[in-house]
Amino acid sequence: MPRAMQARAFGLFYTISIGASASAAPLAGWAADLAGVAAALTGTGIVVLATVVPILVLRNAPTVNHD
Question: Which of these, 43, 21, 49, 20, lies nearest to 31 by C-alpha position?
């Protein structure tokens, strides 16, 4: 990534991360009210485990050397 774009990319990344974190608690509460606490926690665990596949796929992503 060009150095000129790094600040924008980090800003976008953190905006999405904080937005997702802020929306996760109300969604988990809604799921617990709708389906019960055990189902909400199970769903949360499934979502967390589902992130493992993209992490493994992207772990060795090619990089570009900007010499």
Answer: 43
Token digits of residue 22: 């802020």
Computed over every residue of the chain, the mean pLDDT equals: 89
Q: What predicted TM-score, i.e. pTM, was given to this entire model?
A: 0.59
Sign of CA dihedral 27, 56, 54, 10: positive
Helices (H) and strands (E) in the chain, counts: 3, 0
Q: Which residues of 44-56 are buried (b: 16+ CB within 10 A; e: fewer)?
A: eeeeeeeeeeeee
CA dist 47 and 61 (Å) reads 22
Which are the contacts of 3, defined by CB distance < 8 A and separation ≥ 6? 66
**Per-residue model confidence (pLDDT) at position 67:** 63
